[in-house]
Structure formats: structure tokens, C-alpha cells
Amino acid sequence: MTVNKKDVLLSLRDLEISFGEGKNKFVAVQDVNFDIYRGETFSLVGESGSGKTTIGRAVLGINPTSNGTITFNGTQINKKLSRHQEQDVSRKIQMIFQDPSASLNERATIDYIISEGLYNFNLFDSEEDRLQKVTQIIEEVGLLPEHLYRYPHEFSGGQRQRIGIARALIMQPELVVADEPISALDVSIRAQVLNLLKKFQRESNLTYLFIAHDLSVVHFISDRIAVIRNGRILELAETEELFNNPLHPYTQALLSAVPIPDPKLAREKKLLVYDPKMHDYSVDKPSFVEVKPGHFIYANAPEEEHYRQLLDKQAQGVN
Amino acid sequence: MTENILTVKDLSVGFQVRGKELKAIRNVSLELHDQEIFAIVGESGSGKSVLTKTFTGMLEQNGSITHGTIDYKGKRLSDLKKDKQWEGIRGKEIATIFQDPMTSLDPIKTIGSQIAEVIIKHQGKSKSEAKKLAIELMDRTGIPNAADRYDEYPFEYSGGMRQRIVIAIALACHPNILICDEPTTALDVTIQAQILELIKELQREYKFTTIFITHDLGVVASIADRIAVMYSGEIIEVGTCDEIFYNPRHPYTWSLLSSLPQLAQKGGDLYSIPGTPPSLYKDIEGDAFAPRNPFAMKVDFEAEPPMFQVSPTHFAKTWLLDPRAPRVEKPALIQNLHERFEQTLVKDNQLDHDVKVEENLEDEEHDRK
Ligand SMILES: Nc1ncnc2c1ncn2[C@@H]1O[C@H](COP(=O)(O)OP(=O)(O)OP(=O)(O)O)[C@@H](O)[C@H]1O
Ligand SMILES: Nc1ncnc2c1ncn2[C@@H]1O[C@H](COP(=O)(O)OP(=O)(O)OP(=O)(O)O)[C@@H](O)[C@H]1O
Ligand SMILES: [Mg+2]
Ligand SMILES: [Mg+2]
């Protein structure tokens, strides 16, 4: 896939998201900086509670931000928008949820569920046009037109997730936030859904902000990956770079936990444990620095030096 | 180590659903060896949970054993009917850990008291002794400052810690068999890896037998001694961990292995099994996997295959093993699995790992305001 690096679709700068006020204030996400390029799959990985969903919800405008900017297509969107702008953004940024059962209105037909966005934004000329759009999308996600008049409970988990995808994609979004879209699914259905997401990306140059905890899936689907811990991005790089040269000890620990489906190697494997106390940030303060083109890491000056040396050593080893 | 602790023979289980019978388990036989880790894998609905529920008499009201026997240490479990007859076995000798730890914990009782309760009930200890043992168990399962955290409530624990407590409670009864039904599916990779390590370690120490259920073959590579693969209510292949990964014989096992995302080519599609599993309301003719099997032969649609023996420990239920069958190689994608992963691993290890390798299971506090 060729991604035009210049074309930034979404840009987060110094983003902070907090919950509560005063002494109950809890900063869930801080100093988040990254760009997502049009047509790429950008993944957020990190342990439970690290702030992945919180960032996704902020991009969708569901979580208010307490600092920093979110820019979409060149327009800042985390501020008061005109009605027109707001409509535009809420059509162009869509979401696919983790739990297909919880996210579908059980009492509505599939036809209504998929059309809801079209109704809300008046995106069809006539009833005929609407039906044509819905029929087309339902076939594209691998379901049948006859399914339109059924209810969600009549479908399997994988089929429900397809309905969720159809509902998002009928809006012709530019950015899709997919928050654990496959975690609730079985291995074989998981593959179908991932292939479907990739197909739409190829066909319409869709951009994904992909959130998942299964790193083997993330490895497969992502162009770039950001590793987040305790609300802070610790490392960001292109997928192969991150898997081949993980620099931050937390990233290394995370990667060491990925199951290897090979008994001999799996038995020998050592689980690395990350101890945040290893960083001494009392004198040298850390920041998010680029140690190699496109490879960013949260480090202070001595650590940065150390990481650069590691990369040099490795580059020499390869030559 | 091949002494059997549990023997299942020709077991079938049916559920009554609106006047029709759903056959969830069809003629399953298996032998559980003492102190092994036995993994059961297979896609959703294949019968993994139902099969193991029969070992503790936990089938729902509408379900029953329609055929076959389950023997455990001289007791015929398949004959037990009333809850009273299960007393002393269920939860005590054979314990189960489920996917969601929240469903097994009482939200309004402290963590410590829930463990102590079990110890008092099953081991007949005094209150103060039980507390001491509970703290010891919390410690063993990796809860930091166990004594201090004894009086905390479930909501004050993270998901991974709650799962450790569920394990601690299960172990408090000194079970002989521990059934883990997808215990890590809801957890993130780091915690998943820690829980797997923990189960392995505790098993060595407490010498129980483990049944580990998952739909993800990748998860069991590191912990299983043997693996059974289930498809639509049947065990279609069983063997040692190495046999299943390096010498799988059933086309369904091939498909499961092929679906591993670790095997997918970047930029290509993930392998996905075409079609859907058969309806469990109907009798299955021939090989249940035949309609989805690219290697299916005529006979697969006509006659049910027997279990063929591949090695003293390895069996597979596929006509491909019949001497008359043509020679079919497993798909290229899953050949040389070990060599392939060895290469990627070398690549991943190019940098010095300067992380300490140590047991540090502390859930450190959020280091933020
Ligand atoms: N509405 C809210 N009010 C208060 N705290 C919140 C709220 N939403 C999230 N948080 C907190 O913010 C932190 C980040 O949560 P978030 O849901 O973003 O994590 P996550 O990375 O998506 O985790 P998971 O992998 O478990 O989904 C957590 O500590 C969470 O408890
Ligand atoms: N009480 C019940 N009544 C009717 N059908 C049931 C009942 N319990 C289970 N089943 C059916 O029996 C079959 C086997 O279910 P089981 O829960 O064992 O699957 P599983 O392999 O554990 O799947 P999963 O990976 O989704 O947990 C399924 O088709 C299921 O719908
Ligand atoms: Mg989340
Ligand atoms: Mg189950």
C-alpha cells in the first residue's frame, strides 16, 4: 500500500483528556502527539486502562478534551463548530464498536439500523435511492438483501459485526475509529472481518484508527503503531520498525507477551517485565523525540543517547 | 505419567430447544492424564464448554447426557443426577475458572473473605487459620501486599488481579482437576501471559490436572502437554502439543492453524475458513467438516470417518488417513512452522533487551496526579 506521507488526515497535538474536577481530577491521557495519514491504518496498543478508548472517543467528539488540539482535514474539531462543520465531521468520522451485540438497537430492523445515519443527515434523494445504497452496502459486507428485514438477535457475532461495519461505511466516512472491532469474535470470523476492513481500505482509501489488544492482529493490519501506557504515548513507529527494533523497555515487554504459536519457541520464551522505576526522570526531563525518521520515543537526554547508540549498533550489524 | 484421572467414553449431550434436540456433543471419548495440561481448542459453538460442564454436573436444565460414561477416580460421574450427589466433587475436586472473573466474585464481599470462606468450607479450618492461608494463596498467585489488600473489594482490583483471585479461590479447595474455560480471552496480552505462567507454575507446585479451553491455538503453544481439537461436537484430532502444531492431520486443524494472524503475509488477506459449521439439530452425514473442506473426497460426504491412529499419542478422525486415500500434504502456509517462526524471532531480537527479567507482578499505581 502506498501512503502519501504528506497527506495528514488527523492530527493530535499536546492532547490532554481528564475526568473530574479539582482534587478529583484524573488525567487519563496526556501529551499525546501524532498524525494519521490518509489511507493508512494507525493502531493504538497498550494495556487495559491506558487510554486507548478515551483517545478514540475524543476524536469522535464524545469525550471533551482539556488541552491541546485535534485537527481533521485541516480544521480544528475539538472546539465549538458551526452546525454545518459539525454535520460534516460527524459524517466523515465513523466508529466501529467492540461488542456487536451491545451496539445494535435490538428492536430495529437491519434496514433501519444501517439507514439511520442516512436519515439523520438526509443523505439520500429518494426512498429508492436509500434502498439502493443499503442493498449495495449489505452485499459488500457479505450479507444478503433478504437480511434487511430481520432483527439483530437473529444474527451471529460475526454477522452483527458486519452490520456494524455496514452502518459505519454507508456514510462514506474518511476516518473510521475501530475500537477492538474483533476482540469479541472467534478466530475464523475475526479473519473475515479483518479482510473486510482491508478490502474497504483498498477500495475507498479509508483511514483507520485501530484499537486492539491482540498484537498479532495489530502487526498484520497496521501501517504504523503507537504504544501507549498510563495515558502517554511511549513509542511510535512504522509496524516493521516497531516489531524489529522496539526501543522502549515497555514496548519490549509488551512484545515479549505476544503468544508465539510454535511450541518449541513458546517454551523457551522469556516474559519481560517492565518496571517504570528504571527511569530516572528527577533531573533530565523526558520528551517525545524522533530518534530515527518516523520512529518516536518518550525519553530524556541520556536515554535518547542510549537508544541512538542501540540503533547505530544495529545498523552496523546489518551492514 | 499416563495414569488416567478422568475417562470419557462415547459421550453424547443433547439440549431440548423448543421441542427439538440440539446435539451439542457427539460420541466424544477422551482420557485425561494425571497432572497434565490438556487444551481443548475449536471455534465458537463446537462444544468445548458443554463437554467440560458435564465433568461437574453443570449442564443447564434443558441439557442431558444422552449416551456414554464419565469416570473419575472410580466414580461414575455420568450417573450422578442430583446436586447433592455432586457435593464434594464439584468445586472441590473438580473446579472451574470462567472467562469473566466478575461473574465468579461477589461484588459486596471483600476479596479476602471470599477466599477464606472457601477454605473454611472445604478444608474445615478455623477463621484465623483460613485468613492466614488465604493471604498465602493471594501471595502465591502474585497479588502484591496481599495482607494489606485482604480487605479490599473486587472493584478495587484490576481485571488481571481479579482473575488471579478466582484462581486462588479455585486452588483453595486443592482440586485434582482445574478447568479453565477461556480464562484469558478478556485480558490484555501482558496479563494473559502472566496468567498462563501462573497456571503452569501453580500446577507444578500443587500437582493438579488442568483442562485449558480456548479458541486461539496460539495461546496454548506454550502451556499445553496435549491438545484436543473440537468441531461441531466431536473431537476430530488429539495429540501432543508438538504433534498438533508440527504434524497436524485433520484438515480442520490445518484451517485453524492457517487462521493464525502470525502466519499472514503483510498486505495479503488472512486465511479464513469458508462456510459455516453444520446445524447441530440435524444428524451429520459423513465427515462434519466436509462441506468446508477443500480436501474433501467423495467418501467424506457419505460415511463418518473413524479415529485413525497416527502415533501412540496422536489420533485424527479423517478419511485422509485411510490407506486407500490419496496422499495429501498440509497447506504450504503451515509447513515448516518452527523454522518460519525461528526466523522472525531472530529478527525481533536484534536489539539488546535491557529490561529486567524478573517476577515483578506489582500492579503499580498510576504515577500521575
Ligand atoms: N468517563 C470516565 N470517567 C472517569 N474515568 C474514565 C472515564 N472513561 C475512562 N476513564 C478512565 O480513563 C482511563 C483510560 O480508560 P480507557 O477506557 O481509555 O482505557 P483503554 O486503554 O481503552 O482500556 P481497555 O483496553 O481496557 O479498553 C482508565 O483509568 C479509565 O478508568
Ligand atoms: N442450555 C443450552 N440450550 C441450548 N443449546 C445450548 C445450551 N448450551 C449450549 N448450547 C449449544 O451447544 C453448542 C455448544 O456450545 P458450547 O458453549 O459448548 O460452545 P463452545 O465451544 O464453548 O463455544 P465458545 O467458544 O463460544 O464458548 C452450541 O451450539 C450452543 O449454542
Ligand atoms: Mg478500551
Ligand atoms: Mg465456551
Largest sheet, strands/sense/barrel of chain B = 8 strands, mixed
Oligomeric category = heterodimer
Name the ligand types: adenosine-5'-triphosphate, magnesium ion
What is the rounded Rg of chain A? 21 Å
Radius of gyration of chain B: 22 Å
Strand order of the largest sheet of chain B: 6-7-8-3-9-10-12-11
pLDDT < 50 runs, ≥5 residues of chain B: 352-369
Structural class of chain A: alpha/beta
The general outline of chain A is globular
Shape of chain B: globular
Order of helices and strands of chain A: EEEHEEHEHHHEHEHEEHHHEEH
Main β-sheet, spatial strand arrangement of chain A:
6-7-8-3-9-10-12-11
Major sheet of chain A:
8 strands, mixed
Q: How many helices of chain A?
A: 11
Uncertain spans of chain A: none
CATH superfamily of one domain in chain B: P-loop containing nucleotide triphosphate hydrolases
**Roughly what percent helix of chain B?**
25-40%
CATH class of one domain in chain B: Alpha Beta
Query: Proportion of β residues of chain B?
Result: 15-25%
Largest protein-protein interface: A-B, 64 and 66 residues
Average pLDDT of chain B: 88
Description:
The complex is a heterodimer of chains A (319) and B (369). Chain A is of the alpha/beta class and 319 residues long. Chain A has a single domain (8-277), classed as Rossmann fold (3-Layer(aba) Sandwich), CATH 3.40.50. Chain A is built from eleven helices and twelve strands. An eight-stranded mixed β-sheet of chain A has the order 6-7-8-3-9-10-12-11, sandwiched between helices. A four-stranded antiparallel β-sheet of chain A has the order 2-1-4-5, covered by helices on one side. In chain A, α3 runs parallel beside α5 and α5 (157-169) packs parallel to α6. The longest helix of chain A has 18 residues, at 187-204. Chain A is globular. Chain B has 369 residues and is α/β, with parallel strands linked by helices. Chain B has a domain at 230-348: 3-Layer(aba) Sandwich (Rossmann fold). Helix content of chain B is 29%, strand content 22%. Chain B has twelve helices and twelve strands. In chain B, α8 links the parallel β7 and β8. In chain B, α4 runs parallel beside α7, α5 packs across α7 and α7 runs parallel beside α8. The termini of chain B are far apart. The model of chain B is unreliable at 352-369 (pLDDT under 50). The chains are: A alpha/beta (319), B alpha/beta (369). At the A-B interface, β2, α6, α7, α8 and α9 of A face α8, α9, α10, α11 and α12 of B. The structure holds adenosine-5'-triphosphate (2 copies) and magnesium ion (2 copies). One adenosine-5'-triphosphate (ATP) binds at residues 15, 17, 22, 24, 42, 44-50, 60, 62-63, 215, 280 of chain B.
